[in-house]
Design goal:
Strand order of the largest sheet: 2-1-3-4-5
Structural class: alpha/beta
Bound molecules: calcium ion
Order of helices and strands: EHEHEHEHEHEEEEHH
Shape: elongated
Largest sheet: 5 strands, parallel
Number of strands: 9
Number of helices: 7
Low-confidence stretches: none
Strand content: 15-25%
Radius of gyration: 25 Å
């Protein structure tokens, strides 16, 4: 599996270096930019799995980057963790309002940031999974495909019409292919 890329947008080189060092140690690939314009370009070009965004940046600030990412269909689902200086609570609330997923207040420990990053990534992965399974309970055996959510049955890509009871019997049989059912069991 290729490494997951995380983008850091931060104008303080020390912080970028510290965060980057810790992310690389955790197995991530890190790309970084030191101002808003560069950051936005970097994110749009590389589509990282997550963005760590400083709130106070020269040029376009963190909030504006957040807004523009959410406006762009290519970047709108990329999770964002914001870094804020102390006493910027109103900005934090604003940040979460424009779509940041979490934040850490400076000074933070790298350990804390990594924990937040991993939690946000886990949440994002879970959202992906659940959208997959809800749209797909499909069961396929041989030429037969059934979609339990829609009571549809296909044989070799051709839909066939069944009554609800017939459908339920087929579903029962297909989900337990090696079991023998009596007539009474099927009726139930
Ligand atoms: Ca800053």
């Amino acid at each position: 599996m290729s490494k997951q890329t995380i983008a850091i947008v931060e104008d303080e080189a020390d912080i970028t270096e510290l965060v980057s060092y810790n992310l690389v140690r955790e197995g991530f690939e890190v790309i970084s930019a030191e101002n808003g314009e560069q950051g936005l370009a970097l994110i749009t070009e590389n589509l990282p799995v997550l963005v760590i965004l400083d709130l106070m940046l020269p040029g376009i600030d963190g909030l504006e980057i957040c807004r523009r990412m959410k406006d762009n269909p290519k970047t709108q689902n990329i999770p964002i963790v914001m870094m804020t200086a102390k006493n910027e609570e109103s900005d934090i609330i604003l940040g979460l309002g424009v779509g940041a997923d979490d934040y850490v207040a400076k000074p933070f420990s790298p350990k804390e940031l990594i924990a937040r990053v991993k939690a946000v990534l886990r949440r994002a992965a879970k959202l992906d999974d659940s959208s997959d399974t809800s749209s797909d309970n499909t069961i396929t055996i041989g030429d037969i495909t059934i979609h339990p959510d829609f009571y549809q049955v296909f044989v070799k890509d051709k839909q066939i019409q069944l009554t609800l009871s017939e459908f339920k019997i087929l579903q029962t049989l297909i989900t337990k292919p090696n079991r023998v059912f009596s007539r009474e069991q099927l009726l139930r």
